[in-house]
Structures are given as C-alpha cells and as structure tokens.
Write a structure and sequence with these properties.
Sc_DH/Rdtase_CS; globular; binds NADP nicotinamide-adenine-dinucleotide phosphate
Length: 267
C-alpha cells in the first residue's frame, strides 16, 4: 500500500510567491490544499498539477479577508480528511498612500487578511500540530516589517506583527516539535505592486530590475522552514538593509524610509 502523502495548505496560491510555493511542494510530491478567491485559477491549477504530478490537489475558493474565514477553511480540511502537515500563510496585500486618505474598508480588509486570518490559521492548525508533535508553519512577512514605512504605514505595521508574532509562536511551539518560520521578501516580481496601487516603476527601490524572482523567494522560504530557522530575509541585499537598520536611531530610519518611499508611491 502506498504511504499517505503529507499535505500542505497554502493561502493565496493562485499567483506570485504562493503559486511558486504550490509548484515547489507539488514537485516534492506533497498533496496540496489551496485557499484563494479566484475559482477559475484554482480549477486550472488543480487540473494541470494533478496531470503533471502524482498528487491530489484540493481547492477552496474563499475570501480570507472575511471574519472567521480561517475557521471555514479549517472545517473544510476536516470534511476532506486532509491532515495538514505544513501550513503556509502567504495571502496578503498592501495599500499605499497617505494613511488618512486611504479607504478605511480597504485597510480593515488588509488587517483582517494579513493579521487576523493568519493568526487564526496558526491557532487552529498549530493546535493540531501540537497534538501530533509534528508540523511546519511558514508565515510571510516582508522587509517592510523591519522599520516604519511612511505611505505604506498600515501595511508595514501588519508585517511587523507577522514577524514578531511568528518568532514568539516559534519559541512556544518548539517544545512540541512544531516549527514556525517567518519569511520576509523584499521587492519581488508579482501582482503585489498593481494590487497596492504602486504600479510599474522604472527607477528606484521597486524598479523591475530590483525585484527578485518569486520562485527564488519561495525556495528561500521553504529551505529556511525545513532548516528550522526562526526567520529569513530573501536575498543578500535585503538582509543587509534590514541588518543595518538595527544600528540606526528609529527617527533616522523613519526619515530614510520616508525619502526612499515618497517618490515611488502615488500620493
Ligand atoms: N511582491 C512583493 O514585493 C512582496 C514583498 C514583501 C512581501 N510580500 C508578501 O508576499 C505575499 C504574497 O504576495 P505576492 O507578492 O505573491 O502577491 P500576489 O501575486 O498579488 O498574490 C497574492 C495572493 O493572495 C491571494 N489573496 C489576496 N487577497 C485574498 C483574499 N482576500 N482572500 C484569499 N486570497 C487572497 C491572491 O489570490 P486570489 O486573487 O485568487 O484571491 C493571490 O494568490 C503577501 O503576503 C505579500 O504581502 C510581497
């Protein structure tokens, strides 16, 4: 009899870094449980991945910016008898501009998705993993987590939450052989910039040439997770920038951040 395959739950797997996570785990022979909104893309992934790899792909079309959506997904995994061995909290988005001018409902959706849903997923699946004394959780933060980012004020704050929460949770769950790792990507070629309203920039911090490939970022995250690292920043340049932040006064960091970002966003 064939041994039961491990299953990875990935949120936001229909594009960008999440899609690459799905590909990497499919290549490793994991069954996939994918949760995103776009039904059509989920169906396409299921058909092509099941044809290409010897795996089962379960999908759920769900808006994870809705209250209690993580519980709905959790209950669906129970119905489908999918034991989640690896959880990847990847779905997230940003909104740019002067904070007081932003649409409040959009900011609330972002906080719900980036913070509350991620926390609920960690609680529900972390509890199962604790009981089994085994499991892996990878949470996606950002290099924006490492300093205040004017014009992405609330977004960067949600990612600071993800970083701090993940590292603290990792310390609690390590006593039960459950690994929690936080991956912080810097600028990466995905739909993120369009969704955030930043658009295509020819020069500067977020220029196309400065963006990492999403597959490279996903590989860094998966390798760090299985190496049981507490957290990892994608890319040497990004790691260096986040490291140097530690030695500068906070006001100086906030000022530099403001200067770098102001010209790149639409205010
Ligand atoms: N790209 C970057 O430069 C960058 C840098 C730092 C951190 N990050 C982080 O990396 C993660 C992945 O983003 P990405 O860059 O790969 O962006 P992306 O290409 O826009 O992908 C976002 C994914 O999240 C899903 N998603 C968005 N809102 C959702 C919702 N309400 N409910 C369910 N799923 C939702 C989308 O799927 P559906 O549309 O099908 O729902 C999509 O699969 C995010 O947490 C982001 O903050 C990205």
């Amino acid at each position: 009899m064939e041994a039961k395959k491990d299953t990875v739950l990935i949120t936001g797997a229909t594009s960008g870094i999440g899609y690459d996570f799905a590909t990497i785990f499919a290549e490793k022979g994991y069954n996939l449980f994918l949760a995103s909104r776009n039904r059509e893309k989920l169906d396409d992934i299921k058909v092509s991945f099941e044809k290409q790899y010897d795996i089962l792909v379960m999908t759920m079309s769900v808006d994870l910016s809705k209250v209690k959506s993580a519980r709905t997904v959790y209950e669906e995994t129970l119905i489908q008898n999918a034991e989640i061995n690896v959880l990847i909290n990847n779905a997230g988005f940003g909104v740019q501009g002067e904070h007081i001018d932003l649409e409040m409902s959009k900011v609330e959706e972002m906080i719900q998705l980036n913070i509350t849903t991620l926390t609920e997923f960690c609680t529900l699946f972390g509890n199962e993993m604790k009981k089994r004394r085994k499991g892996y959780i990878l949470n996606i933060a950002s290099t924006a987590a490492y300093q205040p980012v004017p014009y992405l004020a609330a977004y960067s704050a949600t990612k600071s939450y993800v970083l701090n929460f993940s590292e603290a949770l990792a310390k609690e769950l390590e006593d039960y052989q459950v690994v929690v790792t936080c991956l912080s990507p810097g600028a990466t070629s995905t739909n993120f910039f369009d969704t955030a309203g930043i658009g295509e920039k020819k020069k500067g911090l977020w220029a196309n040439s400065a963006r990492m490939r999403s597959r490279d970022v996903a590989i860094i995250g998966v390798n760090a997770l299985f190496a049981k690292k507490l957290s990892v920043i994608a890319g040497i340049k990004n790691s260096f920038l986040a490291f140097t932040n530690r030695f500068a006064p906070r006001n100086m960091t906030a000022n530099i951040s403001k200067k770098l970002i102001k010209n790149t966003v639409n205010t």
